Amino acid sequence: MGPLRYPRHVPELPEVESYRRLAETAVDRSIASVATPDAWYLKSGTTSPMLRRLLVGHRFTAARRRGKLLLLDTDDGPVVGIRFGMTGLLTVDGASSVGQLISVPRRDNPAWDRCIVRFDDGGAMAVRDPRRLGGIVVDPSLTHLGPDALSITRCQLAAALGGSVAPLKARLLDQSKVAGIGNLIADEVLWRAGLSPERPAGSLSPADVGRLHRQVGRTLGLLMERGGSHLGDLMEERHPGGRCPRDGEELTRSTIGGRTTWWCPTHQQ
Known about the structure:
By secondary structure, the protein is of the alpha+beta class. It has six helices and eleven strands.
């Protein structure tokens, strides 16, 4: 997947996967210094002195991802976890892999850099987050995250949904059940699968689960090819009066799991 150059999106799984691939360019470079001007951005007991002690003189050895969490392995063992929230952006050597994010001012302000890792070769990696909705933690626990949406199996998806009376979309947004699906992607997947977001998650038949599983994989693959979570077929119709791109029916707007939801009452059952 190349750079995401399209405007106005939030970091969902495709964007964080793009960050992961960008972070690979920071692997195997000796770290000269670490600056964390906003200590509040460090979470779960992580401190500025701790980060400096663990990183300076060392190297990142791999860039991984679980859902919307970026994981940077180090040569000394600790793992640095980065959550980007709604407005977080990763840059390496001054370049990013995404365009303008929703709710982020268009001006460029270095004061929004929450963590800057400088390398011996003169380059740098920075986490920029104007609204401070993300965070950085050393050795983050992954026990609260479900299977990654890109690799989840049909059986794992069935287990995540089975027996639940929660709305189907709310269950998909629950990161402890399926890691990586955000609001835009959930709407696009359910629209493509022909499933109502309001339907109880546990009411899906085996055939429904199979169709949903296929569309999770296909939709994520398509959005990554297109360049971001905001490039689904449903996206441009997510507004009052918007119509279903499949059958022309006026879309319904609901609030599910605390998130604005757009769906077609005709073919999504």
